[in-house]
Specification:
By secondary structure, the chain is α+β, with helices and mostly antiparallel strands. The protein contains 2 helices and 3 strands, in the order E-E-H-E-H. Strands 2-1-3 form a 3-stranded antiparallel β-sheet.
């Protein structure tokens, strides 16, 4: 899977942060340089998390992920 890019217009750098704005409930992928641009935007603040803390998944359907999780639980005996 290719690393996502910053969603700021005209920026092609790799994204390192997931940012969620409180006032419009949107999430954006940003690079290190653009991360601080969003703090207190419009006085509402935001939540920022490093992408390393996020779990990326492939293009499986939710049902396929559910089946995989069930199979792993069965192997653990749960």
């Amino acid at each position: 899977m290719e690393r996502p890019k910053c969603e700021i217009p005209d920026c092609e750098r790799p994204a390192g942060w997931l940012l969620r704005l409180h006032h419009d409930r949107k999430a954006w992928l940003t690079c290190d340089d653009h991360r601080d641009r969003w703090y207190d935007k419009g006085g509402y603040g935001c939540i920022v998390a490093p992408l390393g803390a996020c779990r990326w998944v492939d293009d499986k359907t939710i049902e396929e992920h559910f089946c995989d999780n069930q199979a792993r639980a069965a192997k653990r005996g749960g």
